Amino acid sequence: MAAEGQQHPLKIYYIMWGALFILSGFSYATDFMDHGALRTFLILLFMFLKAGGIVFIFMHMGWERKALKVAILGPPVAILVLIWLMSYEGFYVEDKRIEVYGESTFVPVSPHHEAESTEH
Amino acid sequence: MSEAVAENVAESGSGFVEDWSRDKQVFGVPWGKAMMWIFLLSDTFIFSCFLVGYMSVRIATTDPWPNPSEVFALSFGGDPIPLILIAIMTFILITSSGTMALAVNMGYRKNRKATFWLMVATAALGASFVGMQAFEWTKLIMDEGVRPWGNPMGAAQFGSSFFMITGFHGMHVSAGVIYLLVIANRVRNGFYERRGGNYEIVEIAGLYWHFVDLVWVFIFALFYLW
């Protein structure tokens, strides 16, 4: 009965668990791809698939009433506006910095992992 | 009492309008669960602010952004493997999410022993996650010279974003480990048995733990992979 709480067959959790492992493997694999639109798309795709699985299956949101779904999942949509505003501002600040201070003269140093090995 | 309310609500189907207009508990869940969801919603906004702030400074800086793939590479004697420690941490957190989901299920089956041990396993995995994070921070600070105000590999904002975001997440994991151990101990010593054998609290603790895993999914994708 619904009033008894979220009681579901174990099989659902095992499938979700496995899916999370596979999707995380895919996520890690994107790190070996070249930077570009495809890589960005895959990073976001796997991220949202994992997030959806956790929220809807593990956190049982898929079985909750619509009133709770809307109350909890609705407000975060406002974050999209913040993302839009802050990226717009970010690009503006970058342009102004280049205009006023010129291009960066920073000379990056590669991370040194020799410290980990024994021959050093 | 709460069961009666939940049943009452359940009779009306899943109608959104009916739930809000019936002059009764709207969500049809125990109050503790509704409160945990609302807390998690507020936490969502906090982490979103951190991640959007990180996006903003990463866009605005003119200095090159350090390549996380190289910065977080780890060598086990041979060539450095990119992001390997972060990948291991990710898998540990997913494993702990699975054990937590099983603990919730066992709780509703009133299998106290299994619930207790699964929660302890979850807490142990969480603790090992924090341990690896401490190792990661130490390596970054001592070997790579990353500081909140600058680093030799690129934009200064890398360090401040990194310490702020992963630090706040690590704090959530640490708090979650303590929370889980407290609840697990009460499951073990029969605290909930004496209160009518209601194990909803395990699901509420589980919600928090899954949320910590959820946040890591976003941090992993947006900070480490992007």
What features would you describe in this structure?
The complex is a heterodimer of chains A (120) and B (226). Chain A has 120 residues and is mainly α. Chain A has four helices and no strands. Chain A has helices at residues 10-30, 37-58, 66-73, 79-101. The longest helix of chain A has 23 residues, at 79-101. Chain B has 226 residues and is mostly helical. Chain B has one domain (39-225): Cytochrome c oxidase, subunit III, four-helix bundle (Four Helix Bundle (Hemerythrin (Met), subunit A)). Chain B is built from eight helices and no strands. In chain B, helix 5 packs antiparallel against helix 6 and helix 5 packs antiparallel against helix 8 (200-225). The mean pLDDT of chain B is 89. Chains A and B meet through helix 1, helix 2, helix 3 and helix 4 of A and helix 1, helix 2, helix 3, helix 4 and helix 5 of B.
What is the helix content of chain B?
Answer: over 70%
Distance between the termini of chain B: 49 Å
Assembly classification: heterodimer
SSE string of chain B? HHHHHHHH
TL;DR of this structure?
By secondary structure, chain A is mostly helical. Chain A contains 4 helices and no strands.
Could you name the key traits of this structure?
heterodimer, A: 120 residues, mainly alpha, disordered C terminus, B: 226 residues, Four Helix Bundle (Hemerythrin (Met), subunit A), 0% strand
Question: Layout of SSEs?
Answer:
The complex is a heterodimer of chains A (120) and B (226).
Chain A (H helix, E strand, L loop, with lengths): L9 H21 L6 H22 L7 H8 L5 H23 L19
Chain B lengths: L1 H10 L4 H6 L9 H30 L7 H4 L12 H25 L3 H31 L14 H32 L11 H26 L1
Helix pairs in contact in B: 3-7, 3-8, 5-6, 5-8, 6-7, 7-8
